[in-house]
Amino acid sequence: MAVRLQTDGMSRKLFTQQLGGWRCALVAWMIIGLGGCRWMHNLVPGNQARESQTAAADMSRSTHGDGTANRASMHADNPDAYVRSAEKAMQQEQYAEAERHVARALELNPNSGPAWALKGQLEEHSGQDAEAISAYHRAVSCDVQNSEAALRLAAIQIDHGRAARSAPVLRQVIHCPMSSEEQKSRAQWLLGVAYVRTARWKQAIPALDAGARTRDMSSDDWYLVAMARFRASDFTGARRDIERQLALHPGHNGFASLLDDLNYTESRRGEILPATNFEVPEESPAISSPPLSP
């Protein structure tokens, strides 16, 4: 009996071991079979796996998009999303696309200062200065702290002979707590140019000096400063600027002419200041504004 029980136990143990072996074999067969199926599957062109991958990729592209239009469509009722899409399009020089986004943003929110500012840049890029002025006015009226729009507005006004109108706008930028130091410096320079254009010489000098500290000054810029000093009767400062620039730019006719006027005036000091033959430069480098942005 004991032997039979032992035999039965061994039989059950052997059966269990055999069963375990069969299971291992079955699992191995399934792995090999599945691997073989995948291998065969990949050999067949146009199989379902490849079609599924293609469909998944198409769905991913349609969901995430690869352009500004898809990004805006994800927030169809959000004007800020359209503004961001317009900024992105402008960075990529896709101006027609940017115009569509700006139009949609203003349709959703007619008082969007950023959208009006972008519209002003687009109009300016197209050479439509009158429309740009109108758009920048709207941008500033919607957001008095939009210093960039105010600076662009003032630059166009000066270019078009409206320097007197630009001065209040520029002073607002200078005193705005949200203006960056770079924006304040640009505003100081433009304000100085506006004062020159309106013959407010003594007011022009400190504004030009403040703007010149951070400006990449050209010879025409320095000529403007020297001319303002001369007209404000700051002959010492004017001579210093003129002689320094003549040493750097000996072929600049404006400085040579201005020096002649200065020498003549100092020789007749106490008499009526004679008419001078210099002109206020009208070129945009003196009142240049940065390129289009965001």
From TrEMBL:
Keywords: Repeat, TPR repeat. Residues 51-75, 274-294 are annotated as: Disordered. This is Tetratricopeptide repeat protein. One of its GO terms (cellular component) is extracellular exosome. SMART domains: TPR. TPR repeats lie at residues 79-112. SUPFAM superfamilies: TPR-like (SSF48452). It comes from Symmachiella macrocystis. It holds the Pfam family TPR_16.
